[in-house]
Design goal:
206 residues; 9 helices; Aldlse_KDPG_KHG; single chain; Aldolase_TIM; 2-dehydro-3-deoxy-6-phosphogalactonate aldolase; six-stranded parallel β-sheet; globular; TIM Barrel
Length: 206
Amino acid sequence: MSMAPWLDACPIVAILRGIRPEEVEAIGTALLAEGLGILEVPLNSPNALESIRRLHAAFGDRALVGAGTVTTEDEVAAVVRAGAKLMVTPHCSPPLVLAARARGLIACPGFFTPGEAFALLAAGADALKLFPAEAASPAVLRALLAVLPTGTAVLPVGGIGAENVAAWKTAGAAGVGVGSSLYRPGDTPAAVQQKARALREALGAA
C-alpha cells in the first residue's frame, strides 16, 4: 500500500478537523466529486473514530481514509480498528512510524528540520508532512528536497489555500494538506465542494 497513487490522482489531503460523524458522508461525497480522495480526520475532532468508521464504510477503496493528530501507539491500534489506512502525526516520532508500518498503515509523520526528516525516513515513513508550513516557505521546501533522498514525498501542511497552493507544488511538494481553507465546522457540502474546486483550479496553474 502506497500514498503515491492517491497523490498522483489528486495531491490534496482534505483535513476535516472538527467534523462530526453525522456529516462525514455528505462532506466526503462532495470532496470525491471534485476528485479529492485522501480524507483525514484528526483525532481531536468530535468522536473521530466513528467518523473514520463511517468514511471507510461509505467509500471503501474509493478514498484513502486517514487519521490525523495521532500521538500514541494506542491511537495507532484504534484507528486501524476503525478502518483508517493512513496515519498522520503532528510531530516527529519514529516509534509511531514503526507502529503504523507494523499494522499496515501508510505513515505520513510530521517534521520541520532535516534531522527529523532523516530520522523518520529511516523508520520507514512513506511520506513526510512539513508542519507548520506557515513557519517555512516554498524556498525552504526546495532546500530540503535538495538534501533528502530523491523521490521523498513532502507534503506542506498549515496555511495552505487556493492563493498559495501552486507555489508549494511548483517548489516540489508531492501534495499538500488543506484544513480550514477547505473545511470548517458548520460548512455545507456545497460550500466544501466549491472550495475544493477552487483548490483544484489553483493547482492547475502550477
